[in-house]
């Protein structure tokens, strides 16, 4: 079957991606409901991997489930929870069930999540993981052993264009490209002026595809919590003030997200929509974004 994400990006067709977070349990009904709501407007879905270091159903299981229901999963893998052998093993399992996209992540620290006494692994980092996936694609494991059936992953990674200072992020960005990354999804962008500084560097690598992250904020309280609790996120006081003074903060949050996305569209290959807990508002965001 064709890899829709790869085909669209490589043919410079603008894409929308979003997230499906597996449940803390074996029930898949919520994932299916969100997918059914969005499948006609969102091309591919990140199946998050113990997002925020909180224990959930595995990304591997969620990716296979989505694939079996006709969806286009982006299989997330974090280096936090698995050593290199387990990562390779899960990649082969995903490939065997037709999963073709992977997002390689180092992973949030255990201390941010709900299993604070767990032992983090970090046997390798995201750059090493990209190298592993590239090797599996040509038919060898990390030790050079031949595979009985190679993988065919479209390799993604993350970048934070609002990182302060930006220079270490740019260095890591370039290393990921050298390792074999095909596309990037950015962390949520709230300050377009900061993104432009990143874009000035990215212009040297225009064969690499960029999908800009957009987060739909539902209130000023949410924004302040994210500033405090989520590494690499900084929501400006101007945005917080807009939310605080709005008669309908969620509607204002959708307007802010669409406004930011419109400013970014000419610089990127797609938009990655994050709307944790309010996924049913993503169609409203897309309607606002697509207004003339």
Low-confidence stretches: none
CATH top level assignment:
Alpha Beta
Provide the helix percentage.
40-55%
The coarse silhouette is globular
Strand order of the largest sheet: 1-2-3-4-5-6-7-8
What's the order of the H and E elements? Answer: HEHEHEHEHEHEHEHHHEH
How many strand elements? 8
Overall residue-averaged pLDDT value: 92
Largest sheet: 8 strands, parallel, barrel
Q: What proportion of the residues form beta strands (DSSP E)? A: 15-25%
- Tally of contiguous helical segments: 11
Oligomer: single chain
* Structural class by helix and strand composition: alpha/beta
Distance from N terminus to C terminus (CA atoms, Å) equals 35 Å
Radius of gyration: 18 Å
CATH topology: TIM Barrel
- Could you say what the CATH architecture is? Alpha-Beta Barrel
Please tell me the total number of domains: 1
Q: How does this structure look, described?
A:
With about 290 residues, this protein is an alpha/beta fold. The protein has one domain (about 5-215, about 270-280): Alpha-Beta Barrel (TIM Barrel), CATH 3.20.20. The protein is about 40% helix and about 15% strand. It has 11 helices and 8 strands. It has helices at about 5-10, 30-40, 60-70, 85-95, 125-140, 165-180, 190-200, 220-230, 235-245, 250-265, 280-290; strands spanning about 15-20, 45, 75-80, 100-105, 155-160, 185-190, 210-215, 270-275. Strands 1-2-3-4-5-6-7-8 form an 8-stranded parallel barrel, surrounded by 6 helices. Helix 4 (about 85-95) packs across helix 5 (about 125-140), helix 9 packs antiparallel against helix 10 and helix 10 (about 250-265) crosses helix 11. The chain starts with a helix and ends with a helix. The mean pLDDT is about 90.
